[in-house]
Every structure is written in C-alpha cells, then in structure tokens.
C-alpha cells in the first residue's frame, strides 16, 4: 500500500470523502455583517486616520516654528513656549515619537481594514463564497482606497494646515505631544540608540550639528515669498542688498576724489564758512597743498563750538578791562587756525570690504573715512551714510537736492549720470549689458570712454555718440575732462537696420506704379 492509499484509508475510517474536503477548501463561508458592525468599523478606521493626521500636523507645526520667537516667549515666562522649547531641544526624541505614532496608526488601520472591510466587500460580491480569489481582490481594493484616504486626510491636509498656522497648532498640541513622548519613551529610546548605531556604521557622528541654512536657500525662500505676496519688492531689494553688502569693496561706493569738497589747511575763516554754508556738509576733509595729502577732517560743529568759546573769552576779557565797554576790540580776537580744531583722519584702502569697514567705523565712532589708492594718493572718501545706503537705498535729508543717477525719459531713452556704477545700471535698465569680466572701468562714463577711445572735449560742437550692440550712448555734459551725463537709447543693430532698410525698399518697389 503506497502513501496515497494510506491517506484515503484514513479518511474512509472517519467517514469523510477526500472529494468533500477539496470542495470545502474551495468554498469560503461568510456571515452577513450587521449595520452596527459596519458603523463601528468605519468609526474606528476614521479615528485611526485622524490620529495619523494629528501626528503629521504636530510634526510639521513644530518643525515650522520660529525658534527665535519661541525662545523669546519662553524667556518672558510663557509656559507653553517653554514646553515647545523643550520639544525643539529634544527634536530627535520628538520626531521618533511622531514616527512611532504614524507607523502604528498606519499599520493598525491597514490590518483592520484588510481583515474586516475586505471580508464585507467579498460578501457583497460573492455571498456564497464559491470564488476564493474574490477575497484577495477585495483586500487589494480596500488597501488602495484606505491608502488614498490616509494620504489625503492623514498626511497632506494636516500638513498644509500646520504650515499655515504652525504656532497656533503647536501651542494646542504641545500637551498631547508631551503625553505621547512619555508613552512612547521606552520605544523611542530603543529607536534612538539603534539609529545612532547605524549612523556610526556609516561614519556619521550622531551629535554633529546640521548644516546651517545657506545664502542660496534664503534667496529661494525670499523669491517664494515675493511670488506669494507675503514679501514686498522693496523688502526683497533690501535683503538682496544685505547679501551683496559683504561682496563689495570701498572703491565701488566711495565718492571719487574729483567730487570731493575739501579745504586747504591755510583756508581763512570766511572761506570755511562759505564752503560749509554753500556745500551743506557737516564734515570736510582738510589737505596740505594737494588733496593727495589729507591731514585731517573738519567737523563744522567743532568749528562753531571753538568759535563760540573764543568769542566768550574775548568778550569776557574786554568786559574785565573796562566795565563800561560795550564793544569788542577786533585786534584782540586771536587768529583762527584750522589745524587746531581738525580731527585725525581715518584712512582705508580701496580694496577694503565695506562690511568690515562698517563695523570698524561703528567701533571707532567715526563718520568719514579717507580712501587711499595703491600709490598712497587720495582716491576718494566714504561715509557711514554711503554704507547704509548700500542696504536701505538712497537717504536724503532736508538739504539734499534730488539728483537721480538714472532717469527714464518719455521717449524710452535713459539719462544717466556718468558716475553711475555699471552693476547699478544693469540692474535698473532692462537690456543694459556690459562685459563683466573686464575690470578696466567701474562706471558708465568709464565704459563709454573705453568705447570711444578718447575723452570728449567739452568745447565740441557736435554731439559725441557711440553704439555697441543695440545700445547707443550720446554724451550730454562734460565736466573737468570727464563725462558727467549721457543719454542711452536702444536702437536696432547695424545688421538689423540694414535688413529693415532692404525690406522697406522692396515693399516700396512692389507698391510703385510704372508710368505709362
């Protein structure tokens, strides 16, 4: 008797035919679910999905918090802020608790749905249970439906809400998250230890600080904020100026020596008063013989204070000599000496970084620096106001006359100050281009002189123009052998203009009528 005969003999002893067993295996017996069972199962699934959404929202809300703001609120005694600060400080444990919660809710909802709802669906399709494969198809279908619902209501929607209201949600969920941290503490410790071990296997130190946010990432966030309307264009420009501030040198923002108003050390009192009143400067460089030998800086307030002290002393001396005297003897007034009241100049090289200069001038509490070129001569001056204007834009006081460097004319052309920086012109004028790799010139005037190959004569009767690409420059004003003002207009390139002329002539010849 072989093995199969033994099996048949065993079944025959129990009175069961093997064909009946095979048929029973191919048949699944379902019991009809009640309405209460279905309602309870749906409620449990929804509860698990919402719990998953709670974990997802809490994670995104805490990650999106303004940490500096929370720290400031915690210092002021805000208890909820203190709780959030502890969550942020232990972010590794907090995120581990969140992941445990998300994993458990996802696992339980999937397992429960596959066990209960797949059975319900199979019963609806095949109540007799004759087709066993229907239950497998039902499990796949229910899993897909549940995954879609969990993704929408358990992940995407909660995270979007948390992104829009991070502080509000964090405050409301801080107590709940603290409770989950305590409940999952043993498991999170195990996960944390395992994670650290795996990181060490890959040569990564678990306690190393994460990389700081880069300038590029901040610029991207600013662009997103501008597109969303949450950041104004003027704020974007200021932020861009802050980033560029550290990349500029003094030579790019200084007032050039040709525009510097200075006094000779032997200047008389009346001349000094005239310069101070007419030029409206409160600080004036003082030189000996040439502007390349600056020996100090005159503060007009110092001069006025000195003058008042001298006048009081002279008047007191006169009144002591003669109690009845009501006039001051002019001969008794001491000779005014400028070198007695000027302050020591602060010299900086052209190549100095303006960010470093700004903090140095703040530390020294000075308002003006003399810029020196590589040969030791005076290249120009730079003030604390010049540095601030690189961030906030042009600052005008009550004495400043508005003199815009770049003005757009009604006809589409542009009037440009010759000393306008090339980078500023390219930023403000669309289609303005120049060879950035060429560092022979920094200003528009220097660029045009380079194109011309000579310095235009101030007495020239004919307008001086030069064209490069579509840009046509016309010199409008010459001052002291430099281009003070010019006009820029965009015209077709020579090849384009020639093609347009040919097309126009062809259209004219086609439209002409021959004489008969």
Describe this structure in words.
- The strands form three sheets. The protein has a five-stranded antiparallel beta sheet with strand order 8-9-12-11-10, covered by helices on one side. A four-stranded mixed beta sheet has the order 1-7-6-5.
- It has 19 helices and twelve strands.
- The protein folds into four domains: 35-201, no CATH class; 215-244, no CATH class; 246-392, Roll (CBS-domain), CATH 3.10.580.10; 406-498, Uridine Diphospho-n-acetylenolpyruvylglucosamine Reductase, domain 3.
- A hairpin with a 5-residue loop joins β8 (406-408) and β9.
- It has helices at 3-14, 18-25, 35-63, 67-75, 79-89, 91-125, 133-164, 166-183, 185-201, 215-228, 233-245, 250-253, 269-279, 300-321, 354-364, 384-392, 422-428, 444-452, 494-511, and strands at residues 255-256, 263-264, 283-288, 290-299, 347-349, 368-372, 378-383, 406-408, 414-417, 465-468, 471-479, 482-490.
- The model is unreliable at 6-27 and 511-516 (pLDDT under 50).
